[in-house]
Automatic annotation (TrEMBL), chains A, B:
Keywords, sorted A to Z: DNA-binding, Transcription, Transcription regulation
SUPFAM superfamilies, per the entry: lambda repressor-like DNA-binding domains (SSF47413), Periplasmic binding protein-like I (SSF53822)
Protein name according to UniProt: LacI family transcriptional regulator
PANTHER family reported for this sequence: LACI-RELATED TRANSCRIPTIONAL REPRESSOR, LACTOSE OPERON REPRESSOR
Record-linked InterPro entries: HTH_LacI, LacI/GalR-like_sensor, Lambda_DNA-bd_dom_sf, Peripla_BP_I
Example GO molecular function: transcription cis-regulatory region binding
Ranges of residues in domain HTH lacI-type: 4-59
Top-level taxon of origin: Bacteria
Organism: Kineococcus rhizosphaerae
Amino acid sequence: MPRVTSADVARASGVSRTTVSYVLNGAAKPISATTRERVLAAARDLGYAPSAAARALRSGRSDLVLCVLPDWPIGAVLDALIEHLTEELCARGLLLLLHHGRDPRPLADLWRSVQPRVVVGLTPFSAEDERAMARAEVQVLTTGEHSGLVALQERTGALQVHHLAATGHRRIGYAAPDDDRVAGFAAQRLAGARAACAELGLPEPVALEVPLDAAAAARAVRTWHPDAAGAVSAVAAYNDDVALAVLAGLRAHGLRVPDDVAVVGVDDTALGRLADPPLTTVSQSVEVQAHHLAAQVIAALDGQAPPPRPEQVVHLVRRASA
Amino acid sequence: MPRVTSADVARASGVSRTTVSYVLNGAAKPISATTRERVLAAARDLGYAPSAAARALRSGRSDLVLCVLPDWPIGAVLDALIEHLTEELCARGLLLLLHHGRDPRPLADLWRSVQPRVVVGLTPFSAEDERAMARAEVQVLTTGEHSGLVALQERTGALQVHHLAATGHRRIGYAAPDDDRVAGFAAQRLAGARAACAELGLPEPVALEVPLDAAAAARAVRTWHPDAAGAVSAVAAYNDDVALAVLAGLRAHGLRVPDDVAVVGVDDTALGRLADPPLTTVSQSVEVQAHHLAAQVIAALDGQAPPPRPEQVVHLVRRASA
DNA sequence: CTGAAAGCGCTTACAG
DNA sequence: CTGAAAGCGCTTACAG
């Protein structure tokens, strides 16, 4: 079962490959309606699909958008992102190519061989990689400080503290995740919380790792117990999941939320809303951000200026827990 | 900044392109150590990476694995899958190419132009597509009944009912998800639950949609209230998330779990474990299944027999809620 | 041990 | 309006 090529289509419709190409690519060249019809019919009948490889070789660029995934689990963000990106790229005949960031091979080998239209990084690239891609005129998009996707970690932490302070809390705990892979994010959010405490004249937040496990969470939470040395009246958690672990830990000690300890999360997840009490949280607007990233990719493809950063990607959603 | 080609490497090291290719691809041909060295050094210095397009054109097959995503959100499964698949494929120099199932263009155009090593479908392909791919000798993997990834929905529902029946429940509710996109799965799980009830001589399960929203869940749950017509003593939920919504709904009515109503979920999520009470659940072993799918892809690549289906991908995890 | 040559399938100047 | 020809970058028989 050999591959059907444009030569086959040409033969079947009694024209040259040139004409086939003109017809199929809607070239500016005028082609007679009868020829057009015959070529299209032949292509359809034979099930012809042009070779992406040959096309890429000829044109010097593939129909691929390379997305370099980070080393950490991105859950909801990844989901929304892939959903939007694959779909919007599809609409333009492009394909999303995923690559795992942990690959030991140099990134340069990848984009040099694949020749993608755009390279999207969910994590910043090395300065050297950035330079090399710029030199090769490869469009690059990273979700760093300026992109809006993974942005504003510090502001998130600060927002949590400001809300807790505004509701009268002074001794604040920070519940960090157990997972080393998100340690970078956690550190940035904690830094934001810390800075806010300093700014507001509050004592340093009491930071603690709280695993997503009831027993371990209960052990961790002891430190914050009203009778303990690290007593706090409120906890800012890395995200809603960690906040739910905090809730479980406090429950194990018979502490009530928000009366004994207030809790504020991040992400505005459905399960945070279903908790008892429903979580007060900072929304990072995953949907908005995923859409924005997709829009950035599209703009980059079209050589247009990047779209304006969405307003207010981070905002507080007040519910019962704080 | 024109592309660096094997010709450049050949020129820089004073040999022919043939020799460059032999060295870089570790051909069976013996090449003198000095030549080898010179070629490798030149390749490194020039930042040479072979063109994937040219290679694919030459060999007739790309280094891509095409993954067709379904129309529904797959959350944890997608996460685990992409994580494992990108990583394991990376290790073999392959790349994961994502495609959105909702694309209106025929799937055939895609695999014909891309010429992937394997096509993985997270949802079954049409019979016509299957046939065409088979004819073109394209390796296909679907996660249907036989694959283990999305398998055994009915068994999952049945397992929930068997557990509830074993703990003395006779009137059982089924909490279906709100999301149309997973309606297929939900129907299969419910069918399994229904069959189990019939087999055990229990009345039909009382099926209800329970949204992931506290107020809506509370409304839905009224039907199951001990004083209502649809009264049940236990609920099997589509998954842990829905089970948490059921918990929230029951809580709103002052009903206690498991004393007034027992609840069993599916997925064994971290947040289900953190709930109050911790959820009894059916584990579908996402990790195991993702790994199995990756193993299937690898086996298909190597032309080996598919790996044995993992034992017991579905099992009950007993905790406090049922 | 190394090189000259063909050919994968496409598109696009260039000629008619 | 249509076609013959070149060339994108690679690998691999085939000759030396």
